[in-house]
Amino acid sequence: MSVRRPLGSLAGLAVLGACALEVLGCGSHSHHAAAGAGKPASHPVSTPKPIGADIPIGCGPAHRLYTETGDTPDKVVALTFDDGPSGYTHYVLDILEREQVHATFFLIGNQVRDYPGQVRRELRDGNLIGNHTYTHPDMLQVSFGHAFKELQGAQQAIWEATGFIPCFWRAPYGSINDALKYLARSFGMDSIQWDTDPQDFTEPSAAEIYHRVLYGNPKDPDPGVHPGAIVLMHDGGGNRSHTVEALPRIIDALRARGYRFLTIPELLHMKLAYAHEAPARRPASAAPPAPARGIHPGA
Ligand SMILES: [Zn+2]
């Protein structure tokens, strides 16, 4: 897919992601960002739209750097949805709302600009969101500078739409190495992958998606859902009608097995931040005067 707007180069956004939320104690990693920032800001940043006082504006990384599974014996599971927002997202959100289940969405930045209302609803409904790059490239096939802009662009798009700054990301196609993990950390983000993959992106039937989540995928060593599982599904990137169809049945079956549904921050004990907790000052990179961008108590 194409990049419809220039990514820009807001040099301070990595610093913002890593450090603006000082209530989280995550201010020690910005030097990585400075090394990769390159050019100064090329355009002003619009003011994000705060959703409400009870909606988080950010979260603190678990400082695990990389996670594929929740390390717990408890019957808890994190449902995650990648590649949105898209025209299927509201179907997923309707099901989650009806079932009173919270999930985690990994968002493609340039689609956030097309569906800002869906992203705001994700947060408003109690779900959490993560960064899934700006254009969804294989991050091992692009330059380090390009990778930086992919993370930065998605952070910026999410922040502009919601006032929320993600504290974790997921590498498209699972393509990740240590350099990317540390690059993400410079944005204040942990790298979160998955351990339960029904491969719904291949558009199998709803029954097959359900079976793979519950019992594993015979084409993969994936054993199916288990305590602490992080389940990968998709609400964008293709025809997701079968995923939407399978979701209520998956939720019902997991509930019948005694599972509870947690967001990634809940599963990994990441702290959420709210505007009333944030320091009343602008980040160092901020060009425009107050009102500040979603981190100000009055914003
Ligand atoms: Zn993806």
Provide structural commentary.
This protein is of the alpha/beta class. The protein has a domain of 208 residues: Alpha-Beta Barrel (TIM Barrel), CATH 3.20.20.370. The strands form three sheets. Strands 3, 4, 5, 8 and 9 form a five-stranded parallel sheet that branches. The radius of gyration is 18 Å and the shape is globular. Bound molecules: zinc ion. Zinc ion binds next to β3.
Mean pLDDT over the residues: 82
The name of the CATH topology of the domain at 62-269 is: TIM Barrel
- The total count of helices amounts to 10
Amino- and carboxy-terminal Cα gap? 34 Å
Rg, alpha carbons: 18 Å
Q: What labels describe this entry?
A:
disordered N terminus, 299 residues, three-stranded parallel β-sheet, 10 helices, 10 strands, binds zinc ion, alpha/beta, five-stranded parallel β-sheet, single chain
Can you lay out the helices and strands and say which pair or pack?
Elements: H1 13-20, H2 30-37, E1 58-59, E2 66-67, E3 76-84, H3 89-99, E4 104-107, H4 109-112, H5 116-124, E5 128-131, H6 144-162, E6 168-169, H7 178-186, E7 190-192, H8 206-215, E8 229-234, H9 241-256, E9 260-261, H10 264-268, E10 272-273
Helix pairs in contact: 1-2, 2-7, 3-9, 8-9
The protein binds zinc ion (ZN).
